[in-house]
Amino acid sequence: MEASIAIQVLPKVESTEETIRIVDEVIAYIASTGLNYQVGAFETSIEGEFDTLMEIIKQCQLIAIKSGASGVSSYIKIAYRPEGGVLGIEEKTKKHQH
User: Fold this and answer.
1) With the C-alpha atoms ordered 53, 58, 64, 66, is the resulting torsion angle positive or negative?
2) What confidence category does residue 61 fall into, taking pLDDT thresholds of 50, 70 and 90?
3) Surface-to-core class of residue 4, CB atoms within 10 Å of its CB (0-12 exposed, 13-18 middle, 19+ buried)
4) For the chain, first and last CA: distance in Å?
5) Do residues 58 and 51 touch, judged by C-beta distance below 8 A?
6) Among 13, 26, 57, 85, which residue carries the largest CB count within 10 Å?
7) Least confident stretch, 36-45, 49-58, 81-90
8) What's the pTM?
9) Shortest CA distance to 62 belongs to which of 54, 72, 77?
10) CA-CA distance, 62 to 71, in Å (whole number)?
């Protein structure tokens, strides 16, 4: 694995219910990619190949708009090592899971 990202999608909508609905659609898309991911309270972490993850970031924005948001802001964290060896989600979090 050469990359991992964390993405927080913040759709511009009028209600908390709409925010949750749109974020759920974005997470469903991420799940449909078949990549390893983990949903957290503030962001979703995904691991895979760099180019694939960059396309996922793009699609998350488009899905939020197609789902009804008038705009979207996202916060992205990227760990990238072209030669591989990026720490995986499980390596980072396993000892903290309960």
Assistant:
1) negative
2) very high
3) buried
4) 26
5) no
6) 26
7) 81-90
8) 0.92
9) 72
10) 10
